[in-house]
Amino acid sequence: MKYQDSFKTMFGASTHDMAMILGVTDGQYSMFDCGKRNLPNEELALLGEMLAHMKKMPESGTLNGKHLIPFLKSELDRTERQYYLTIKKMAAAKKKVTATEKVRHLSSLILEMAERNDKRRQPILNPFHTQTKDYYWQKLEIDLLRLKLKLELLGEEKKILEARITAIQGSPEDGKA
To answer: Which domain of life is it from (predicted)?
Structure first.
């Protein structure tokens, strides 16, 4: 389990980036980050210098509304784009599901007609064919459910961002002081 205040969050870099900066492998840095192993001495000295430099930097504190509102608006735009892309993907998935339903219905009719006409049909191929169709059908249904869930989450994220923007714009700390 990783520490809550890991170097990755302090420096804002991924595990791979931190490993590249320190000149060690990803595995070595991951083991160091979770407390299982130590880094070589030179890399520990470099990390100490980085930490000392971070302590010298002034704390930025919280962002005021002047800087936070553009960031929240860009996040809202990104969320809206993802929302509409998800709607398009969901429409395409629904088309696939309806097309698959039609194909399943037609194939069952064709199989029934073939069984009535041809008694010499190989019974081994039929279960494999229906299992494959059922697997594809289940996969489509799962994809559709995932898209519905993503759509709900994006809608909630959109509402939260809009509420934060209106709360910040309505607060007296907009730089009017």
So the answer is: Bacteria
**Residue 12, token pair as written in the block:** 């804002």
Whether 90 contacts 147, CB under 8 Å = yes
Q: CA–CA distance from 156 to each of 76, 112, 163, 173 (Å)?
A: 11, 48, 11, 26
The predicted-structure confidence for 80-97, as pLDDT tens digits, reads as follows 999 999 999 999 999 988
What pLDDT is stored for residue 132 in this prediction? Answer: 58
Distances from the Cα of 74 to the Cα of 13, 41, 62, 79, angstroms: 22, 43, 18, 9
- DSSP letters along 75-89, please? HHHHHHHHHHHHHHH
Higher pLDDT, 119 or 14: 14
108-114, Cβ contacts within 8 angstroms, sequence gap of 24 or more: none
Please name the residues in contact with 80: beta carbons below 8 A apart, sequence gap of 6 or more: 158
